[in-house]
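Hey,
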Amino acid sequence: MPSLATRLLRSWATLLVASAALAVFAFPSLADALLYRRTELAAGQLWRLWTGHLVHFGWQHLAADLAVFLAAGIWLESITPRTARVFLALTPAAISGLLFLADPQLAFYGGLSGVAVGVLVLLALVQLRCDRASPRWFWPAVLALVVLKVGSEAFSAAPLVASFGPDIKVSTLAHLGGIACALLAWPLARREAMRIGSAR
């Protein structure tokens, strides 16, 4: 099992995304140019498909997203580096595209939660087959908790962890998009993890 230092060295893409989110939070003037906004996307500002996920609505929102994203992302990238990096490059745009096509009433969106949920689900799916150190119930329990969280937020339209204020709601569709991306990436990630594991 790789040490924490080894995981961090291998996880540059995860750390890059997290650092970018921290930088955007530290300089709020950037948020307006980066946030997912439907009208600006329709006008051709396609970078917002990616950068909208870096914008957060308060420190609680940022902390909650980064806690999941960093823990799962560092672990995933250390065991399936190629798949994890492709996932981090494509999933934000895929989620934003889904929001644009399937939720025309959504005027704006921000946060890493959709990507973080996808990373966590992909990690759990890979580890179901590859992790022999954890108890057998651990990764199924992680997946069950994700389902419970997404389901409860879908019914309440309120986050379980962070507080955004009365004008901002949870986008269940973004979380479902992250899960869908994880399911699509699962075969590639599993093969890569098994190949790397057998080579050690």
